[in-house]
């Protein structure tokens, strides 16, 4: 084995082990360096794709260099996975993925949970990566034989006698509007299991359930590659499964190939056309214009405050002593000895800021990947995989920011602070996940993660996320610098005067969250329809603009509310800034109820628990991230205004 690896390291570039990786429009990748060739070949050897048999080939210079020899089956798998090139009559992989109610996207089951025809030699499961398993994909081989550029007319798949139990399962699937999903050369296809017909009769109408028994594949090719595939069911070739007695069924299929001029690197564009329809683009741009108007109005409002109110305050607070003696000091300068008094529960506060900073950095990295085209349509599980990896790699940011702020605020138990930071987001998310995974296991759904996948995620957290959090905490604890407040803090806190009810925390959070939410609520529908439906969202540039607007509006509205809070001599602004900034997450969770009951057809305990459970986790993350934005904006504002006056 070691000798084979050594010979693989000097593999010539022209040896056609891989003829370039070209997957869903990604640019061609060539193995140019010997180290990369060795690493790839070693990985292929480990996974059993390349046969460890070498031969010699004579180069143009007359030297003898090793060549990798692929077994026939391994070569076919390798080309199918990377090149997507096929010869005439060559087998193209067709995998059955899952079935489930169309209106409940999270409630999915394995394809063969329904009594479909199985392969004669037994079904074989396809190896899935982490993101695909998280998406609920469980792909298995099918008995369909769809070779490259081979037409088939009315090909029999199998004969089956459906008993009462099988008929009951199919009836439930037809009643719940089940769909099936398959992948042909990594292209997704969908179809429905059957249909319902209402027969009008005297009295109550009768419902009849029909099972589709024939599937037709329309496939387009360009040269030696598959470009497009569509599947349709014949409404005339059905079987009535309403009654309880046994039914003999013949399942069949047909295939029709046609040539197209669409290039291979554009074959995924059809799946993203929905987002680019003129009427939808119009709504997206209307959303951006609406958000920009909100930003402009808020900016003008804040400019008025900063230019007029603060200017008058500065003039009043910096006038000469004779004029100062004539009036009693009031307003935000009056509390200069308390405004930089550190908040209660310092460790929790710093953990919130650290975790919010980490989530903000993770979202920015995800947007970078999206804008460079990593998350193309139906790149199965890529987004979830990216979120897990980026969250793990950015854990050091949370540890550093939390521990550094904790040190600046005089905290001493930094170990407790680091532990709190590490579990602040992961802890609640794990509790929600455990409950929802238990529900999915009870339903025998593919949404339930296998034990091995759970172990992988725990290992990633234990070996990457948590150690990086600890290392970041150590670096933050040992960092230099002090908290340089413009004003000296008094020994005893000043009593806060009685304030009207609308100055309390909850009303202020409502006011703070409404404007940022109004700037994004139009775009929220399309995001929800993509995450909790079957729409495709690909306009990441517009989404990034909306996200930037959300951050700006959150910062501005939190600054405004912080100024009003200080103006009435309420100096406890630290936690208030976090709560007001993060209140948009509460509005988003409120929108979940509206979307579930008014804009979707989701139903059932599993789908309901998945929707509200995972959306709570997402909104909690938004609360931490935007709370961090609100605090940092307010801190910059407070530091600025108190530096501009003379504090005794």
Provide the descriptors you would attach to this structure in a database record.
50% helix, alpha+beta, four-stranded mixed sheet, 17 helices, single chain, disordered N terminus, elongated, five-stranded antiparallel sheet, 648 residues
In short:
The chain has 648 residues and is an alpha+beta fold. The chain has helices spanning 2-8, 34-46, 72-82, 130-134, 164-175, 278-317, 321-325, 346-371, 382-393, 395-408, 414-424, 426-443, 451-477, 505-531, 540-567, 574-599, 605-643; strands at residues 54-58, 64-68, 94-101, 109-110, 140-141, 152-162, 178-184, 187-192, 194-199, 206-212, 214-222, 225-233, 238-240, 247-259.
Description of the structure:
By secondary structure, the protein is α+β, with helices and mostly antiparallel strands. The chain is 50% helix and 14% strand. Strands 3, 4, 5, 7 and 8 form a 5-stranded antiparallel beta sheet that branches. The chain has a 4-stranded mixed beta sheet with strand order 6-14-11-12. Strands 9-10-13 form a 3-stranded antiparallel beta sheet, covered by helices on one side. Strand 7 (178-184) and strand 8 (187-192) form a beta hairpin. Helix 12 (426-443) runs antiparallel to helix 17 (605-643), helix 14 (505-531) crosses helix 16 and helix 15 (540-567) packs across helix 17. The longest helix is centred in the middle third of the chain and has 40 residues, at 278-317. The protein is elongated, with a radius of gyration of 31 Å.
